[in-house]
């Protein structure tokens, strides 16, 4: 069974930047990433912590698959 990687907030931001997400704003330790896709804004929130819990990484992965095909994201989040 594939195991989810423990990533930092910075690593996740770099991964999502490959798919066109840009840093929009920051409040405390949470960064709002956004990309405009045709007529809608796609937004994701990433905590800027050294190492995120596996559940947090999994939740971000699940939210990101609403905008990015799972098959493209999978190799970045899972071993």
TL;DR?
By secondary structure, the protein is of the alpha+beta class. It has helices at residues 9-17, 54-64, 70-77, and strands at residues 22-27, 30-37, 40-47. It has three helices and three strands; from the N terminus they run αβββαα.
Instruction: Tell me the strand percentage band.
Output: 25-35%
Distance between the termini: 9 Å
Principal-axis shape:
globular
Share of helix among residues? Answer: 25-40%
* Fold-level CATH name: Metal Transport, Frataxin, Chain A
CATH class: Alpha Beta
| Parts with pLDDT < 50 across at least 5 consecutive residues | none
Number of DSSP helical runs: 3
Report the sheet with the most strands, covering strand number, pairing sense and barrel closure: 3 strands, antiparallel
Mean pLDDT: 95
Alpha carbon gyration radius: 12 Å
Q: Which CATH architecture?
A: 2-Layer Sandwich
Question: Strand order of the main beta sheet, please?
Answer: 1-2-3
Task: Give an overview of the whole structure.
- Helices cover 35% and strands 28% of the residues.
- It has 79 residues and is α+β, with helices and mostly antiparallel strands.
- The chain has a single domain, classed as Metal Transport, Frataxin, Chain A, CATH 3.30.920.
- The chain has a 3-stranded antiparallel β-sheet, with helices on one face.
- Helix 2 runs antiparallel to helix 3.
- The mean pLDDT is 95.
Task: Kindly list the characteristics that best describe this protein.
79 residues; alpha+beta; Metal Transport, Frataxin, Chain A; three-stranded antiparallel β-sheet
């Amino acid at each position: 069974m594939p195991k989810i990687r423990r990533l930092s907030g910075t690593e996740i931001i770099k991964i999502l930047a490959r798919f066109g997400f840009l840093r929009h704003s920051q409040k405390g330790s949470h960064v709002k990433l956004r990309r405009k896709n045709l007529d809608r804004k796609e937004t994701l929130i990433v905590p800027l912590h050294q190492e995120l819990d596996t559940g947090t990484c999994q939740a971000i992965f699940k939210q990101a698959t609403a905008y990015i095909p799972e098959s493209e994201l999978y190799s970045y989040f899972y071993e």
